[in-house]
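Running low. Invent one:
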Amino acid sequence: MTTAHWTEKILWVYILLIPFSEKAGFILLGKRIGWLDIVALLPIAFAGVNLILRKKKTLPKDILRALFFMPALSAFSFINSVNLKLSLIELSGLIYVIVFFAALSAIITSRESLLRCLRVYFFTAFGLSLIGICAFSLSLYTGNLTHNQFLNFSQIEAMAHHFPRIKLWYESPNMLLAYLHIAFIFGVFLSLNARDKKNRLMYVSCLIVILTAAFLTGSRRFTGLLLSAFLIFSWTGKSRVLALAKNVSLAGCVIFLIVSVITSVWVVFPIKFIKNNGPMAFKITDTYSLHFIQPVASINMFKAHPLIGVGLGTYTLNFKNYIDWNWLRTSFGFEAYPHYIRPVEERTLSFDPHSLYLGALAETGIAGFLGIIYFIFIYARALKKKLSKALTQKFFYSCVLAGFLGFLLNGLTLDILTMRHFWLMLGLGLAPSGEKTG
């Protein structure tokens, strides 16, 4: 067996372990660098040797330039950092996923190699979705909603969803949704790429399970998945089934987006119905949702240090200095989050930015933000070029582009920049195997 084959198999192991990357035993230096990432060192080294020996074509120069600018421009924020160690760890995590992304173009050597990696990811996600659905069903059957390590059921779930949210081994259901989002992208491509109806039916059945688990995460980031689905169905064809799927996914995306905005700004749950000699109607109170405090703090950080931010990776440390604690205590609702009352009184409450864009502006200012926007533009343009040239694999590039745009939408309320599975999708999207016809 050749080195290339062993390298691909190690990549499979890495893909299999991605869903467990947030487990305590996998963490090495915070959430950004873990023991799992050590597994990727051999494939990365193999890719590096291939590139040095010029056995494989490197990425386009504009992509390499954009990859360089992201960490380089973010590093200027170190000037204002209150903790250089945290900033270095965050920068190291970003550089790691960038190097991994670049290495994939040398690891994936054929169309068959690409398909094998997609299947490993997809069927792993399918198996985990089954576990999540079983845990969810068991909790409803037994009535034990609060003592299951695979589920979240706190005060907010009881008031908003009225059911536990699947999270599996991830820290939150939102992170699981992001993982399943990519499984959906890969699954749609694999199903339409299947050579016979039997295999296609198998993929569609697995997709239904994955989508069910994704919905049961109860995450507002389902919006981005629905956007990806709408784009894929729009680009696939004009059959009645696809037209129906396109319209349903678009309607769902719009509804989820509106609900996400409303619930991010105001307290809606629990829904209060009022009847004044007329029909029942729900009332949005004038109390702000706790989700609203992160963008406020982010904007305050950006206003204080607009050029280079407060320091990469130091958002949580700076949080307490950029909010009005009296305003937070008197104008925000805590009914759904009673465990936050004491940290607010003690002024120790802290959050992550929960936004790619606002987080970048807060931590790295205009410099780091422009680095991210530049990469987004260059990557999208590279996929567009692939679409204009590809024949047999054109649909694969369409799926990756749809997934990319869906993640960018979710980036409004989710920090996607250092997600390993996100960069895996992007790397496979530019792998040269997509142009093979084997």
Observations:
- The radius of gyration is 22 Å.
